[in-house]
Amino acid sequence: MIAVKLIPHLLAALCLLLVLLRCFASRRKSVLLTSVCGLSAGAFTVLLLRSMPVVSPYLLLKSLLGVGFLALWGVSVAVNYRKNAVALDKNEGGIVSSVAALAGTLLAAFAAGGIAIAKLSDTALATFPPVLLLLVVVIVAVIVGGGATFLEKQLSPRVTITPVGMVVAVVALLLFSASSILRLDLFSPLSMKVMKGVHDLVHQSMESVLIPDHVFVRPVVWKYIGFLFGKEVGFWGGMVIWFTPPVLIALAVSSRKLPSVGHIRQGAQRRKLLAGALREQRLQLLLPLFSLCVLAGAAYQSSFPTVEYWDPKPIPVVANEGGMIILPKKGDILLEDGKIHKYLFKQKEREARFFVLLTPDGQLTVDLDACAICKPDGYGQAEGSVICYYCKTLIPLDTVGKPGGCNPVPIPFTVKDDAVVIDALTLINTWGATVQATTRVKEGGK
Amino acid sequence: MSPYIIETGGLTRSYGDICALKPLDLQVPEGEWLSVMGHSGSGKSTLMNLVGGLDRPTGGTLQVGGENLLALTEDGLARFRRNFVGIIFQQHHLVPYLTAIENVMMAQYFHSMPDEAEARHALERVGLGHRLKNRPGELSGGEQQRVCIARAIINSPKLLLGDEPTGNLDHKSTIMVMELLKELRGEERFTVIMVTHNQDVAAWGDRTIHLDDGMLVREERMNCQ
């Protein structure tokens, strides 16, 4: 099962190493060694950090990915600005470029190794003794490195990879690998940021022109402004930001000037030179196009994160004659075990979903399985936080029970006779108000 | 650097028990027009196929344009033929459903990339400027052979091979084709190896070798026509 989970990550790492080996073909051995070390080091670091509660390996990896994505943007803009820039198009043999090549390789392999290990749950990792785990990591890194070397040798020598092509492919492969892990995925947060940005912009703009009383903005305009408040805004806006770098790089490659052949007298030689340049250009387009596909896969995959979270099925509950829902702390379910326990309360045609949780600071809290701003898709729990399924925001367990933002909406309750007592009317009304607020233009909850 | 564009040493080609070419030592200087004569089955076409990279020898050495053809892979041989050799066949081997200019452009395509203006110019050079859009079936034998010449020279080969190029042409067309080849050779400076059984055609060359039963039996220098 563990091996199956790791297959996409190992394949991504294999492709990544293949690209690096071909890009830095003149330093094949050192690149191979560096990448195997990087893969192992990344995996070790994440393993180590996961055992330390203070530092989050996810933050480290996510920051690395974020920097990589920004670097990709920088490269894509620069390569368009300096279409004939030698530094961006060719591998120079100097010591600076050697160091840069090895440093880049180390970072990329480090991230790939870390992401692969981040995919595995603590439970899965706990099944291995630490020494065996480290040994397996090294062996797998060597196998991936060997496989990449073998495949690189099978590639036609005509296929050359420029540093620009290498950057776009490596970043795309890392983002693809990370997109299946909720806490490392960049696409969903990007979509959310875009959505929030657009909403804020429209809101502020509308306020500044005092809509709807403004003379220039007629009611018909609202029909179009409505698009900006749809849920697709974040997705498509995110896609634009996501796909632009490889598209820019592909444009830069395809609009690169062909060599001047006017001075060559012999037609065959002229054609040969032009055909060679065109072939090279087409081959160089392969990586940006491949990266586009990989990024599309990443965006798709981010919709189905496979993090192992605690998400119990809501248990139906009823209110007593006094309109109170009573949940014993120590019945079939231990309410104070630190996990979220979901319940479903139905009253005629109305219903409310809520959960009870003992936070790490020892406070019992009752909250709706919904927040005040998102579609009520609910929450899951994973290692120190709950996750809003809709916007993928991670909410630390310490802050659950406090209102605001994407936090679960808290519900007043009392503890009586070792049981949690909730007013059913308050619960159902709060749910109704929340759902009404968050589904005005959206679909219903899950 | 060797002054010879073709150098063979003990070159042989056998097909099972049949030895089509017996050990042959041959040197062809760059720019020479060599005629190869002999009866049917004497090994003329076998020699031409070997020199042109269309076939592989079973023994000996074969250097063409500094390239050891025995060491080349199939891809290497294809590259060699593409860049180095132009071939004119007796049967023309033109693609019947393509026009004259398209046949020439096809050779450009396999060499590098098509260039219509250059193909048109090549056909104008061989006197077919008015037949660009005609298919092979609409051309006479001599005209078809001129299309073949345009196709053979379009990629500026260093070596032009002709396997009985005038074999099925009348006397007038033969003279026209040979004059054209001579003129183009003067301009392009390529080496010609012309396989023929026609003494008059062989006489257009600088030197003639005679093969018999796979062996070089005679060699003669010709006076330029």
- Spatial order of the strands forming the largest sheet of chain B: 6-7-8-3-9-10
Radius of gyration of chain A over all CA atoms, rounded: 27 Å
Alpha plus pi helix count of chain B: 7
Strand-pairing-aware structural class of chain A: alpha+beta
What percent of residues of chain A adopt helix (DSSP H or I)? 55-70%
Give the biggest sheet of chain B: 6 strands, mixed
Coarse shape of chain A: flat
How does the overall form of chain B come out from the CA principal axes?
Answer: globular
What does this 3D model show about the protein?
The complex is a heterodimer of chains A (446) and B (225). Mean pLDDT of chain A is 83; it is low at 85-89 and 441-446. In chain A, helix 3 (57-81) packs across helix 5 (95-118). Chain A has helices spanning 2-23, 28-50, 57-81, 86-89, 95-118, 122-126, 130-154, 163-178, 187-208, 219-228, 232-254, 267-301, 424-438; strands spanning 315-317, 324-328, 341-347, 350-358, 364-371, 379-382, 385-388, 394-396, 408-410, 413-416, 419-423. Chain A has two domains: 2-190 and 233-301, no CATH class; 315-438, Rieske Iron-sulfur Protein (3-layer Sandwich), CATH 2.102.10. In chain A, a hairpin with a 2-residue loop joins strand 3 and strand 4 (350-358). Helices cover 56% and strands 12% of the residues of chain A. By secondary structure, chain A is α+β, with helices and mostly antiparallel strands. Chain B is an alpha/beta fold and 225 residues long. Chain B has a single domain (31-56, 74-221), classed as P-loop containing nucleotide triphosphate hydrolases (Rossmann fold). Helices cover 34% and strands 29% of the residues of chain B. Chain B is built from seven helices and ten strands. In chain B, the strands form two sheets. Chain B has a six-stranded mixed sheet. In chain B, strand 7 (159-163), helix 6 and strand 8 form a beta-alpha-beta unit. In chain B, helix 4 packs across helix 5 and helix 5 packs parallel to helix 6 (171-188). The two termini of chain B are 31 Å apart. The interface between A and B is small, with 11 and 11 residues.
